[in-house]
Amino acid sequence: MTTHTSADTFPRQYARTLRYTVGAPRSFSVAPDGSRVVFLRSRSGSDRANLLWTLDTATGEERIAADPAVLLGGGEEDLSPAEKARRERSREGSAGIVGYALDGAGRLAAFALSGRLFVADLVAGTATELPAEGPLLDPRPSPDGVHVAYATTAGELRLTRVDGTGDRALVRPDGPNVTWGQAEFIAQEEMDRDRGHWWSPEGDRLLVERADDTPVNRWWIADPANPDREPAEVAYPAAGTADAEVGLWLLGLDGTRTEVAWDRAAFPYLARVHWSKGGVPLLLVQSRDQRVQRTLGLDTATGATEVLHEERDDVWLELFQGVPAWTPDGRLVRISDESGARSLVVGEQTVTGADLHLRSVLAVTAEEVFFTASGGAAETDPEPGWIAVGRIGHDGKRLSWESANGRPFTSVTTAVHAAGVTVRATAEPDLPGTLVKVARDLPEGVVVDDIAVIASHAETPVITARPVFRFAGERRIPAAVFLPTGYDRERDGLLPVLMDPYGGPHGQRVVQAHNPHLNSQWFADQGFAVVVADGRGTPGRGPAWEKSIHHDFAGATLDDQADALAALAEEFPLDLGRVAIRGWSYGGYLAALAVLRRPDVFHAAVAGAPVTDWRLYDTHYTERYLGHPAEVPEVYDGNSLTGYAAGLERPLMIIHGLADDNVVAAHTLRLSSALLAAGRPHTVLPLSGVTHMTPQEEVAENLLLLQVDFVKKSLGI
């Protein structure tokens, strides 16, 4: 890690380093022969531009494979609006090379830089630009390394040869709002699917998404600070409205086209595509209400599909990375809630039990499945928040774990496996940053850390987080408590409390790590006892825990914040007469909800980018949890904030980026209007030109300072 400058304060450093992610290695791949690891990393903790690197697994030597400063001749990056939107969907704040794809041998890498196409020969150590129509997105080499397919902002899917010849359109848009080869908004934002084209293992054709967002409502994101600028048009599929029409086609390099057929009326969501040598291409499609999904096998000769597995759930079905997939001998691998636990299924056999909560599949080998998991039965877990890499035989035997320094509790932030080589990034509560180790399997199947540690250039934080982990209350709510550095109970007495949750789906905050808790520790060092609680709906505790919020954001998630607070006050020095709450996005919703519904518990709130009316949020997320607004309007009324406006009697600050196209500023404006109509004083802080991520350094720094000032004044500190 690199050191910080003596003039740094935590807010300044935290903002400048993008929460200490700048300079840390990321985006790992292992070559199919295990000879090299490929990854991204910038030169330092203050340089946001990622370079492409390789590590030789025989020697541990690192080498630069592509340097954006060299490739662009020292010039600045020029990002298209489509690329900026894609990065917003993926919460990508860095620069330079932010993604890449490899050929089948792991020798050739393709990537976009400033909307242009580049390839790197990872063996020779050379990188070159290829002629291409730009601005372009998501270039992907064919498995044989002969071609690169890429999407353009004009909606085309194009093909070029790696030798620099033959650039041509494989397919062009057949309508004004049609794109080929790109993931649509909902796939990127909610399904964790950011790609829209997939090569066949032989490299002779592709599966290509065609998306038409003509049916989607148009919203307009204006810049009030610059009224001379034209508002940006956004196709936004709000709850209860139309989604983009998504189809899939087989495209041959010779120009042949075959449409893939499935019941798109009943299963409009294309959630996953998998094409490997283990079997026919797999599609995972979902119904609009996400209670039924099918794994389909594709006949590549005709485009017809066959139902290989259908799964149903009375509440909803989750999506997972790495599945569905094939074992090399043709058995279907998936993650399922059918047993009541979140389990790994190979063929017809459920191979993990209720003591594990599966999170993703990393790799499927001839004998084993590599996966990430956390504790499924909280009663058996001594501490919350651990995530580990496991491996298990296809028959459910030989379960083992990838150790991390012999520590029982860690948080695996990312991992990949191929050809007997595992790259694993782990974090620990008392160590800043992450440790990335490259390990090799011995013939007996034992894993040893005998290859290398990939260095991190991330800056060392100027403060140290000191989380104390607990399961709180009868429901054993995962929680972390932070006290001021140097706090002495006998001297300092009870502390005002700041609840600091996300508290909703897909947002686990209580993890066995250090850096994710730095923000909370800084707030604690301003004189607070800070509590982070992962109540019902957050991941890592099993399907029943996550699905207990069905139709009930406003009840279950808020109740668990209040219950965790009360339970922790029995052990920690919490002044329950001075309690504030802050959060962003779902956490912002929860913070505003707290002072609107439970002023007896929460005495002030800072709500950042809150969803205030769930009818204004997108289809796939909102309808999964709350249903269709036309069918259950009372659920939307009961879970939205505007209906509770008249009940505000505590200080509330609402912060919102006016350029936010995820949670649009209309959410805050509607709540503010309702509060004003009810005669309830409140504070609104509009952020001109700021999106949902608030990546601007000065904005991110000052937001922390303003929140502390508001909370202190509100609590009379």
Characterize the overall form: globular
CA-based gyration radius: 25 Å
**Percent of residues in helices:** 10-25%
Total E-strand runs: 44
Helical run tally: 13
Range of strand content: 25-35%
Determine the oligomeric state from the structure: single chain
Structural class: alpha+beta
Instruction: Catalogue the unreliable spans.
Output: none
For the biggest β-sheet, the strand order reads: 37-38-40-39-41-42-43-44
| Biggest sheet overview | 8 strands, mixed
N-to-C terminal Cα separation, in Å?
37 Å
InterPro entries: AB_hydrolase_fold, Pept_S9_AS, Peptidase_S9_cat, Peptidase_S9B_N, Serine_Prot_S9B/DPPIV, WD40
Domain Dipeptidylpeptidase IV N-terminal: 114-358
Protein name: Prolyl oligopeptidase family serine peptidase
Keywords: Hydrolase, Protease
